């Protein structure tokens, strides 16, 4: 979707502002937000793609004024409600009121190290050959799906070169919406700055994206 | 401020937020506390697991991991080759695996090319080697400008590259996580890997910085 998250090339946000000392957390709530988000992710009730899409669906004014942990929490509330774990009234009240869905797994303290060390690999074997080869010219599609996609707006309908075939991975555009993992080949596609940004672009600039096969067509 | 937080009768201590009196902060504090309470009462989360997650990223998984990888690549050409060929395996061999490090790629700076990593669509970041991302990495200013004005962004980090240096921006749009291997500073012949790692800044592994120069410091 053409949501507030798709920020590449937008203007007006001012300078990058690193903080002095860069604390990992700004107060207790950010720590709890990290822990709650990861713990609920361990339920196995939704995928990383669905959670990314929930974040993208936060209305633009809210998204752009929120810190990232706030974005996580707002999206998590949506996911917990969507999957039947909590009711909005319970969050409002700050207390449980009725039983809800039962997750496949509850993350206990003694499981944390193992779960974090394992991560969630999303490469999947494919028995079809990649459609594109290294060095091939390709064009990204001009698409504007209302659902989740990982093809950023700035890189649509642009001609680039396949630099690497990176393997086959879960296709987020389907997986985010419960349509299955439907893995595809993923390619690193590199574009000249001028192809993306036009005249006046930094002549020394190239930009790459990692693109699923269905984002691309031969030139 | 104590680094140990007690979760007492009302769930939280109060000594951490002296400097945060704005309403938004209080709103999020209350919102996250309510969510944690509901989820705990429902048996869906284990507050001790939240503590374990936070402790992991506050004390164990951070940019020192990546610095040790870079230092080893500087010191051992066989390892550097492995890192180029199969970063996931090379990095895993040093014990750095797991969440947001499942599929790693290492990109090497040269005198001709400087690499810069961004996630324009969300906050993708190689946690296994760099830990949690800083706020600026997840914020709109960096995400919007890194792909269109990387030299302007670098200037805000105090980095000025020759006009002829090519700039390659990697937008992490899929599940590959990028680690920049900065150029080895001059004058470090014979240094141990531990000493070399001290020169590898977090920003130099994102591409918003360079490895520290050895001027004025001795191993």
From TrEMBL, chain A:
Keywords tagged on the record: Lyase
Pfam families in UniProt: NHase_beta_C (PF02211), NHase_beta_N (PF21006)
Nitrile hydratase beta subunit domain boundaries: 121-218
Statement: the UniProt record of this protein carries the keyword Lyase: yes
Catalysis performed (reactions): an aliphatic primary amide = an aliphatic nitrile + H2O
Keyword Lyase: yes
Documented EC number(s): 4.2.1.84
Enzyme class, first EC level, given as a word: lyase
Gene Ontology molecular function, alphabetical: nitrile hydratase activity
Gene3D superfamilies: 2.30.30.50, Nitrile hydratase, beta subunit
Ranges for domain Nitrile hydratase beta subunit-like N-terminal: 1-101
Function according to Swiss-Prot or TrEMBL: NHase catalyzes the hydration of various nitrile compounds to the corresponding amides.
Family under the similarity heading: Belongs to the nitrile hydratase subunit beta family.
NCBIfam families, A to Z: nitrile_beta
Name of the protein in its database record: Nitrile hydratase subunit beta
Native source organism of the sequence: Rhizobium oryzicola
Lineage: Bacteria, Pseudomonadati, Pseudomonadota, Alphaproteobacteria, Hyphomicrobiales
TrEMBL record, chain B:
This protein's UniProt keywords: Lyase, Metal-binding
Gene3D superfamilies with a match to the protein in the record: Nitrile hydratase alpha /Thiocyanate hydrolase gamma
Coiled coil: none
Recorded GO MF terms: nitrile hydratase activity
UniProt region (Disordered), positions on chain: 1-24
UniProt EC number: 4.2.1.84
Pfam families hit by this protein: NHase_alpha
Keyword presence, Lyase: yes
Catalytic activity: an aliphatic primary amide = an aliphatic nitrile + H2O
Domain Nitrile hydratase alpha/Thiocyanate hydrolase gamma: 27-208
NCBIfam families, A to Z: nitrile_alph
Family designation: Belongs to the nitrile hydratase subunit alpha family.
Protein name, UniProt field: nitrile hydratase
UniProt organism field: Rhizobium oryzicola
Gene: nthA
